[in-house]
Write a structure and sequence with these properties.
The protein has 480 residues and is an alpha/beta fold. The protein has helices at residues 12-18, 34-49, 62-78, 106-110, 132-135, 162-170, 206-211, 215-223, 227-235, 252-255, 340-353, 379-385, 399-415, 431-436, 457-466, and strands at residues 23-28, 54-59, 82-84, 89-91, 97-102, 119-122, 150-155, 179-184, 190-200, 256-257, 267-273, 280-287, 292-296, 308-312, 318-326, 360-361, 363-365, 390-392, 424-427.
Length: 480
């Protein structure tokens, strides 16, 4: 390594600085040395490419940015860099420059249009509810002098951006395995970006464990006995969320069921959460009347195993049997901009396809769709005209927190054996509920509420249904 006062630790930090991929997500657990790795990556980059290197590091807010400044001062002044406080810029002896900036909303990204950087870093990526402000900066990554373009992002599980980061960097490929994300352009061309996830845990940061042997004990105390939280912080597990609202109750093996024929005496209805630039959500629900049903046996086909088990659920137990989530299919929390008419027609078409049209009762929807200016039709009126009728969801003061608590009670009831109270179950075809709801974050300022900046649209729609007034079950014969 060059004489710059810093060298990567063996393992993930070395893999990071040697990685040739242009878009790198690095980190995953507390104490993994991710911020040091990102700062060191720039240090080597500017040393290698000299005065043509132009870099910038983002955090979501300036107070958060101060956490990086202290460590950056220590590393970069040793390498001879000069800190320009008013401009928040390091100028290195070879002429390379690195800026430290905050980035929260799209309007902040707009300030950088026309800028040119060859290296970009973003710390604590999961603090960003949406990738939009970060993605808007792709156009600023360019190199008229032929330097390799590089973007280094760090983060841990949890936070309002957990879902989109997981979908973009964790799910597509195993750690260290590069993959390509393609996007079709209006002119028929295809844009391709090479990406990779490099995980790092406390075990990969021996410098911290040696210099501060009490660090992990303090983390254990901060977790306050929550084993699931410790696992997320210690091992960087992306299916466990630090600070999740439901993950202490959610059990995939219990709450997710294979679809089964719905008895004709059960009520079926739908709920709806409106969205245009953000996703909309439609959920179809079956409500038990307490009769016995046949549940598919996961071990069906094995010697001595029956095809079905019979089971009785308490009256009022809810089953999410179908869903339609209006997102772009690639970027979590990004909508499709479908109009109310198109959504209504899509609902009708799906109910006909599933052969439940005529058996579905109106259910609750976001009360905002019932608002309209004088002389104009509301969204609810338009959707009713095209065959998708709803009634206003309960959104009186306090109903939001009451709804979350009711959802938690139902998830807990489903874990009881035998069940004594109405529970909540999800058919395995409802993939977007399974993707988004169990990992929702608590609001940092109000632990009794869900973080409204997270991908909470399906959870809102489910909450509307759970809080709906009790209605009679259908007596029409039907099959699902």
């Amino acid at each position: 390594m060059p004489e710059i006062g810093w060298a990567p630790q063996s393992g993930p930090q070395t893999a990071l600085v040697q990685c040739p991929i242009e878009d790198i997500f690095y980190g995953g657990a507390r104490g993994g040395g991710k911020t040091d790795g990102m700062l060191g990556d720039w240090l080597l980059y500017q040393h290698r490419y000299g005065g043509h290197a132009r870099g910038i590091i983002f955090r979501r807010t300036y107070p958060e940015l101060e956490e990086i400044e202290a460590r950056a001062h220590f590393l970069y002044t040793m390498a001879g860099a000069d800190w320009k406080a008013q401009k928040r810029t390091f100028i290195f002896p070879n002429g390379a420059t690195l800026r430290l900036r905050h980035l929260d909303k799209d309007k902040h990204a707009a300030k950088y249009q026309g800028h040119s950087y060859s290296w970009m870093g973003t710390d604590e990526l999961t603090h960003f509810p949406s990738p939009d402000p970060i993605d808007l900066l792709w156009a600023t990554l360019r190199s008229p002098h032929g330097l390799p373009i590089r973007r280094v992002l760090t983060g841990n599980p949890g936070g309002p951006g957990h879902n989109w980061v997981k979908a973009r960097y964790i799910d597509p490929a195993p750690p260290y395995a590069p993959f390509v994300t393609e996007q079709e352009l209006p002119d028929g061309m295809v844009a391709a970006i090479s990406r990779v996830f490099i995980p790092a845990t406390l075990d990969d940061n021996p410098a911290l464990t040696k210099n501060d042997p009490g660090y992990w004990q303090r983390v254990v105390m901060a977790a306050a006995g929550k084993e699931w939280l410790l696992k997320a912080w210690r091992y960087g597990l992306w299916d466990i969320v630090a600070g999740g609202f439901f993950d202490d109750l959610w059990n995939r093996s219990v709450h997710i069921l294979r679809p089964f024929p719905i008895p004709f005496t059960w009520r079926i209805d739908r709920s709806f959460d409106w969205g245009s630039s953000k996703p909309f959500s439609v959920g179809w629900w079956a409500e038990s009347d307490g009769c016995e049903v046949g549940i598919p046996n996961p071990r069906k086909g094995e010697p001595g195993q029956p095809d079905y088990f019979t089971r009785t659920f308490p009256r009022g137990t809810l089953f999410r049997i179908h869903e339609w989530y209006g997102w772009d299919g690639e970027t979590p929390n990004k909508g499709t901009y479908l109009q109310d008419t198109e959504i209504a027609k899509g609902i009708v078409w799906r109910e006909k396809t599933w052969k439940i049209r005529g058996h579905v009762r109106p259910g609750p929807a976001d009360s905002a769709i019932f608002d309209a200016d004088p002389g104009r039709q509301s969204i609810a009126d338009v959707m009713k005209k095209h065959g998708a009728k709803f009634y206003p969801a309960d959104k009186k003061p306090g109903s939001r927190k009451q709804g979350w608590e009711a959802m938690r009670r139902r998830l807990l009831a489903a874990l009881e054996d035998p069940m004594e109270s109405p529970g909540l179950f999800v058919f395995d075809n409802c993939r977007q509920f399974i993707r988004t709801v169990p990992v929702l974050q608590r609001d940092e300022k109000d632990p009794d509420d869900v973080d409204t900046e997270s991908e909470d649209h399906i959870a809102d729609e489910a909450r509307y249904r759970i809080m709906a007034p009790k209605r009679g079950v259908s007596r029409e014969r039907m099959k699902v």
